[in-house]
Amino acid sequence: MTDFNIETYINSLPDTTTKLNLVSRNLIYLPDLSKFKNLQELYCSNNQLTTFTYFAR
User: Fold this and answer.
1) What is the pLDDT of residues 13-42, one digit of tens each?
2) Does this model's pTM top 0.90?
3) Given 4, 8, 23, 39, which residue has the most CB atoms within 10 angstroms?
4) Which position has the higher pLDDT, 2 or 32?
5) What residues does 20 pair with on adjacent strands?
6) Which one, of 44, 45, 47, 37, lies nearest residue 14 by Cα?
7) How far apart (Å, rounded) are the C-alpha atoms in residues 44 and 39?
8) Which keywords label this protein (predicted)?
9) How far apart (Å, rounded) are the C-alpha atoms in residues 57 and 41?
10) What range defines the domain where residue 25 resides?
11) How many domains does the chain have?
């Protein structure tokens, strides 16, 4: 099984993404998600996140 690369994954998604599921990806940070202007749902439980930056619309 290959390692999950969050940057590669985020860059592969269309800007029009409305839901993002990052559950159980062993993440320690979230990259910049501001390109997702239509993002309505973000699932990121079961990770190692220490900070979370909120991007207001």
Assistant:
1) 999 999 999 999 999 999 889 999 999 999
2) no
3) 39
4) 32
5) 42
6) 37
7) 13
8) Leucine-rich repeat, Repeat
9) 14
10) 1-57
11) 1
